[in-house]
Amino acid sequence: MSTTVQSPLAWEACVDDAPVALSARGDVVAVAGAEGTVKVLDAAMGAEIGAFDLPGGALAVALSPDAGHVVATGPLGYALWRRSDGRTTVRESGAWSAAAAWADGTRVAVASGRRALVLDTDGDELWRTEPAASTVTDLAWMRQGRRLAVAAYGAVRCHERHTEKPVATYPYVGSHLALAVAPTGRWICSGNQDASIHIWRARDGGELTMSGYPEKVSRLAFDDTGFWLAADGAPDVTVWDFSGKGPEGTAPRSLRCHETVTALAWRPGAAGHLASGGADGTAALWHATAGRPQARLRPVRELDGTGEAVAALAWAGPHLLAVAWRDGRIRTYGLPSRNAL
């Protein structure tokens, strides 16, 4: 691995294992490669802090809120790494594990076949859900980590802490590829194989489907306010307004830059800033909530690419954006002001 400082606010690193997932928290960036190598880097300069391997390859990686732990998941299981001493706990369960989500700095949920497992930071199981109808595809915590939403074919099911059976079920016949829960707790959204977004109002189960996407919807992201949802599934990024009564009967804003969207991440805060990446290698920054419904927006800034597809991107706080490309390059870009792009 080599690291080159490009400027006081940006660096570039190269890793040998093609990136598939990226996570950033505070002063740390974690990148997972397709073959299962996970690198943990200093967010300010790119120096390697630690590394570990997940046998069988990686699909997802997530840093804990305090940046003290990393979890990686993959086709054969999952692994946890502790920053304080580099301790790594590997669980080769043989079950497909495509997602992980931290409730707080002490508990993390991982998909494991048809179940979700909730673990402590040592990798010890605290509780598990009953089997879903098919493989769990995504997870999200609600109510400040007191309720876990689990997506699998046919429904999103919600579990209270230490409850194997769901306390609420939100049915939809189809394959859920992505799950997003509004920070307000009002909305649960799934991106689906049938090229739609399905939406439930959490308090009463009221439903709405956004259909007509040309491709499957596999990436969803709410901003910190819970009022804006970004989605892929089309050449444009679509941004839906969930304020007030929600998006029913409204049109989204469209962000035109990529031929195929491969990554989405909202900048922390309430400024309405979104980063996106594409299969053409471009990364872009947007005032994603500007204009009116049906507005077609152009990026505020495009970031130089490597010619390879953007694999993932993540914000290490409001001032530093990390971008990983399929060729193994990772770059960070500094943004000095919360209100400026």
Blueprint (SSEs and pairs):
Layout: E1 2-7, E2 10-14, E3 19-25, E4 28-33, E5 37-42, E6 48-53, E7 60-63, E8 69-74, E9 77-82, E10 88-91, E11 100-102, E12 107-112, E13 115-120, E14 125-128, E15 138-142, E16 147-152, E17 155-160, E18 168-171, E19 176-181, E20 187-192, E21 197-201, E22 207-210, E23 220-222, E24 228-231, E25 237-241, E26 253-255, E27 261-266, E28 273-278, E29 283-287, E30 296-297, E31 301-303, E32 310-315, E33 320-325, E34 329-334
Parallel strand pairs: 26-30
Antiparallel strand pairs: 1-2, 2-34, 3-4, 4-5, 5-6, 7-8, 8-9, 9-10, 11-12, 12-13, 13-14, 15-16, 16-17, 17-18, 19-20, 20-21, 21-22, 23-24, 24-25, 25-26, 27-28, 28-29, 29-31, 32-33, 33-34
Outline the structure in words.
With 341 residues, the protein is mostly beta strands. Helix content is 0%, strand content 50%. The chain is built from no helices and 34 strands. Strands 1-2-34-33-32 form a 5-stranded antiparallel β-sheet, with no helix packed on it. Strands 23-24-25-26-30 form a 5-stranded mixed β-sheet, with no helix packed on it. Strands 3-4-5-6 form a 4-stranded antiparallel β-sheet, with no helix packed on it. The two termini are 30 Å apart.
Helix proportion: under 10%
Main beta sheet: strand number and arrangement? Answer: 5 strands, antiparallel
Subunit organisation of the chains: single chain
Broad shape? globular
The helix/strand class is mainly beta
Distance between the termini: 30 Å
Beta-strand content estimate: over 45%
Strand order of the largest sheet: 1-2-34-33-32
What is the count of DSSP helices, taking H or I runs of 4+ residues? Answer: 0
Query: How many strand elements?
Result: 34
Low-confidence region ranges: 2-8
Average pLDDT taken over every residue: 93
Rg calc: 19 Å
